[in-house]
Design a protein that fits this description.
single chain, Ostalpha/TMEM184C, transmembrane helix
């Protein structure tokens, strides 16, 4: 029975992912069209981002330039890395790690961007000194409605920043550690054994991710009324969508591939084909998100109103606090 299984198993389903030249040699007409269109989308996303950078550096105040560039670059960077991973399947681990590191920095930059859009730390503290932060928000404590509200002070603001900054720092540290362990043969993303490094590093990074997203959610819930004139809700939605597609969707596809649910298609093994499908989906999705974020961030950056807007903001916040 085992001999019969060996005879029917295609050797291409058991080897490493193909190199780039093998992909080119095995492309049919549909494959040529698909790869050409996706490569064009990735290149066009990068060109849109570069054009947006020029606009930002010309039109946006200095304190917001780098923040908005970082946040705008999330989708184009992921799209570009996915395109490289599509053409060079054996480098998918490195392209995914690069995208993940970039987005880890974007999480922190998005939090700082919301503060700068509200006038900076001092203006935020002045506006919100009489109010409290609702910490029963996702992804950590959305169901813990009994949690107390926290006073807005310099210390609480520092803790919010620290909660997001630790992810930007530690994600890069663990990525470097993973690459070093991989060169020594100790890190393999498909290794589910308790003695493998991946089974320890990946869940810990997941905890750091959730811990970093929590402060951003807390600050967004507090400022979404104040920043509604600059479309902070759709901006936050795009930021969350990039997170879901680049992290959760990719993880689900990879798990299905590792369990053999995604069929093998030589020269791609089941796992390599899963990686390939993930990269191709990300290119298309990030292309659409790039177009949407360009519309959201390409605007006049005028300062927020002070007196009249403050009165409206205070009324809304008091109403929210009473309802809570």
């Amino acid at each position: 029975m085992s001999n019969r299984t060996n005879r029917t198993m295609d050797p291409g389903c058991m080897g490493q992912p193909p190199v780039a030249i093998q992909i080119i040699q095995n492309l049919d007409i549909f494959g040529v069209i698909l790869y050409s269109v996706l490569t064009f989308m990735a290149a066009f996303s990068l060109l849109i981002f570069l054009e947006e950078c020029i606009y930002i550096y010309r039109k946006v105040p200095a304190n917001k330039k780098s923040l908005i560039v970082w946040v705008n670059g999330a989708a184009p960077v992921i799209s570009t890395m996915s395109c490289l991973g599509m053409w060079i399947p054996r480098g998918v681990m490195f392209t995914d790690m690069t995208s993940a590191c970039y987005f880890a920095v974007v999480v922190f930059k998005f939090l700082i961007m919301m503060l700068e859009e509200s006038g900076g730390d001092e203006a935020f503290l002045k506006r919100s000194s009489k109010h409290k932060l609702k910490i029963s928000t996702g992804p950590c404590c959305c169901c813990c409605l009994c949690l107390p509200h926290v006073a807005i002070t310099r210390r609480s603001l520092f803790l919010l920043k620290l909660g997001s900054f630790q992810f930007a720092l530690m994600k890069i540290v663990f990525t470097i550690l993973s690459i070093v362990l991989w060169t020594n043969g100790n890190f393999d993303v498909t290794d589910k054994k308790i003695t493998g490094a991946a089974i320890w590093i990946n869940p810990f990074v997941g905890v750091l991710t959730i811990t970093a997203l929590w402060p951003v959610g807390i600050l967004f819930m507090h400022l979404k009324t104040t920043l509604q004139t600059i479309k902070i809700v759709p901006k936050y939605a795009m930021y969350q969508l990039v997170l879901i597609l680049s992290q959760l969707q990719t993880a689900i596809i990879n798990i299905l591939a590792m369990n053999g649910i995604i069929a093998c298609s030589p020269p791609f093994s089941s796992q390599a084909r899963g990686y390939m499908l993930s990269q191709q989906l990300l290119i298309l999705e990030m292309f659409i998100i790039t177009l949407v974020t360009r519309l959201l961030y390409r605007r006049q950056y005028n300062p927020l109103p002070t007196e009249e807007h403050n009165n409206k903001e205070n009324t809304c916040m008091v109403a929210l606090s009473n309802s809570a």
